Structure formats: structure tokens, C-alpha cells
Amino acid sequence: MPDPTALDQATSMIEKAWAQPIEVLEVLAVRRPCDDPLLRSAMHIRTALAITDNAAAVHQERLHALTRPGYVPAYYELDRLVSSAADLRVALAESGAHVQAIRRVVEAREASSTADRGPAASLSRAAIARSGLAPHAPRRLPDQPVLAAAVGPSAPASGPRR
User: Fold this and answer.
1) Cβ burial, residue 86 (10 Å; 0-12/13-18/19+)
2) Where are the beta strands (DSSP E) in the chain?
3) How far is CA 80 from its chain centroid?
4) Between the CA atoms of 36, 39, 40 and 44, what dihedral angle is there, to the nearest 10 degrees?
5) How many C-beta atoms surround the C-beta of residue 101 within 10 A?
6) Long-range contacts of 55-61 (CB under 8 A, 24+ apart)
7) Which residues, 6 or more positions from 15, have their beta carbon under 8 angstroms from its beta carbon?
8) Residues 52/7, Cβ–Cβ less than 8 Å
9) Helices 6-18 and 78-115: crossing angle, nearest 10°?
10) Summary count for the chain: helices (H), strands (E)
């Protein structure tokens, strides 16, 4: 059995965190994006990871073709060999970063689900509401002066000044 790729690892993390198959989660992330923004974020990162994972596979196949047993690369192929190796390293580093980002999204989901339980959740919601960070209807603050509406051009109150 081949080693699991970064995409396989990310898929299993997402499926485990949301307890549903990836196909169902893809549909949920597209149809109802506001219901679970963390799911949408994880699916976006997974899409980028799929592209990076595919690029890594292409670079790896190219390297295998250039370094197969019994094959001696020509002088003009050395640049291609070096650039493919560098591109493979970049793709693998990007894949690792994407997996790490999905891991952070899953951790954030777990933290938010545990925060919603218990009295601490209601206390934190109350603190957010008191801090002014909570969304609310716009209104005029009591300390702000009311601006007078201009009716027409202002005229001097008592004749011309000298």
C-alpha cells in the first residue's frame, strides 16, 4: 500500500472532524457557506492542497523519468533535472503548509465547539456584547451633537458689520 499523500491526510482530518464523508462536506460547503465558515475554509485549503499535491506528483514522475536506472541524462537535461527537484521541494513544502493550515482549522472548530458548552460560553457572549464588538443596529450615541439641517443661505443677524 502506498504512503498516504498530504491530500489523503487532510481528507481524513476533515472527515474525522465533521464526521461525514468528504463528498457530503463539499456539497455543504458550497450550498450553505454561512452555516459553517470553518468547513468552507477547510474545503478551500483542501482544494489548494489538491492542486499542490498534483503538482508534486508531476514533478516526482519527471524526476523518476530523468533518473531511471540505466538512463544517463544528457547535458541539456541537467537544468531540467535540477529545476524539477527544486519544484518538487517547493510543492512538498506547500503541501505541508496546507496540511498544517487544515490542522489549525480543525483545532479552531474543536475549540469553538467546546467553548459553546457550559456557562463560560454565555459569559463570553455577554462580554462580547458589552465590549461593543457584537454586531448591532446603528444608532446615534448620546454624546454626539445633533446637526442642524440647513434651510437656506445664512443671512447676517443684524445688518452689515463694520
Assistant:
1) exposed
2) none
3) 34
4) 170
5) 18
6) 55/87, 55/91, 56/6, 56/88, 56/91, 56/92, 56/95, 57/5, 59/84, 59/85, 59/87, 59/88, 59/91, 60/88
7) 21, 22, 25
8) no
9) 10
10) 5, 0
Residues listed for the chain: 162
Dist. CA 87–CA 9, nearest whole Å: 21
Q: Distance between CA atoms of 7 and 48, rounded to whole angstroms? A: 10
Exposure string of 131-158, with b = 16+ CB inside 10 Å and e = fewer, is eeeeeeeeeeeeeeeeeeeeeeeeeeee
Q: Report d(CA 148, CA 91) in Å as an integer.
A: 63
Residue type, 17: A
What pLDDT does residue 102 have?
A: 95
What pLDDT, in 10s, does the model give residues 89-120?
999 999 999 999 999 999 999 888 776 666 66
Mean pLDDT of the chain: 81
Asked if residues 18 and 108 have their Cβ atoms less than 8 Å apart, the reply is no
Q: Can you read off the three cell numbers belonging to residue 68?
A: 531511471
- Specify the pTM: 0.65
